């Protein structure tokens, strides 16, 4: 049902848009990444920040919530939540590495670690669901950890960091992180990345 939506709001929790167009506050604290199952809108995911940040799931349309298991507290409450469009059950998210759930987020298993600090964005090719890409970047507090772009072609992972030779980007991922990834809907082997924001201390 395309009329039903979830959205996270900083300081004001998670909101749900009902089919009749009304909005309802369904989760507290800082709201972040959200997801609604396109096959059954009772299955929802929501990020909640209150000191430690947590990813939570609901099986009744957001009327009640439980903590997702096998996933550590979020580094930030807008950790991405990516639901595979062609699947009724598969969800990807990530904190220190990419994680996958086969049961709508009830629990997760680790898929890949790109060596960065935390996951900023995830995408899967609409033309080939075995093609996956995600980016990691270090926290705005200097931690000496590298950023990375990670691409899976259905057989193996390829990781690009600032130390990769030859480095393919004009932007340094450790200073200007990757904030979005989109696979092309036309060319299977093409993806687009967007750089944004300066993480280095003292810069905005």
Total helical segments: 0
Strand proportion, as a percent range, falls in: 35-45%
Oligomer: single chain
Structural class: mainly beta
Number of extended strands: 17
Distance between the termini: 40 Å
What summary fits the major beta sheet?
4 strands, antiparallel
H/E topology pattern? EEEEEEEEEEEEEEEEE
Question: Radius of gyration in whole Å, from Cα?
Answer: 17 Å
Verbal overview:
This protein has 204 residues and is mostly beta strands. Helices cover 0% and strands 42% of the residues. Strand 5 and strand 6 form a beta hairpin. The termini are far apart.
Key features?
four-stranded antiparallel sheet; 17 strands; single chain; mainly beta; 204 residues
Please write out the topology.
Elements: E1 5-9, E2 13-17, E3 23-27, E4 30-36, E5 44-49, E6 53-58, E7 66-67, E8 81-83, E9 91-94, E10 98-101, E11 109-112, E12 118-124, E13 131-137, E14 148-153, E15 157-160, E16 178-183, E17 191-195
Antiparallel strand pairs: 1-2, 2-3, 4-5, 5-6, 6-7, 8-9, 9-10, 10-11, 12-13, 13-14, 14-15, 16-17
Question: In a few lines, what is going on in this structure?
Answer:
The chain is built from no helices and 17 strands. It has 204 residues and is mainly β.
């Amino acid at each position: 049902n395309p009329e039903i939506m979830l959205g996270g709001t900083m300081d004001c929790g998670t909101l749900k848009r009902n089919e009749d167009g009304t909005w309802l506050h369904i989760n507290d604290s800082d709201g972040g990444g959200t997801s609604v199952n396109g096959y059954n809108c009772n299955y929802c995911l929501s990020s909640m920040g209150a000191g430690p940040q947590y990813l939570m799931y609901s099986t009744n349309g957001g009327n009640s919530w439980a903590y997702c298991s096998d996933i550590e507290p979020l580094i930030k409450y807008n950790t991405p939540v990516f639901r595979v469009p062609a699947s009724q059950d598969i969800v990807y998210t990530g904190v220190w590495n990419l994680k996958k759930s086969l049961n709508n987020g009830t629990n997760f298993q680790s898929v890949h670690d790109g060596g960065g600090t935390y996951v900023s964005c995830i995408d899967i090719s609409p033309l080939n669901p075995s093609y996956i890409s995600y980016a990691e970047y270090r926290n705005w507090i200097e931690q000496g950890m590298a950023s990375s772009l990670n691409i899976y072609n259905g057989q193996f992972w390829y990781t690009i960091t600032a130390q990769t030779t030859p480095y393919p980007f004009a932007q340094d991922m450790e200073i200007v992180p990757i904030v979005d990834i989109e696979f092309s809907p036309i060319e299977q082997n093409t993806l687009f990345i967007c750089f944004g924001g300066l993480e280095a201390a003292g810069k905005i």
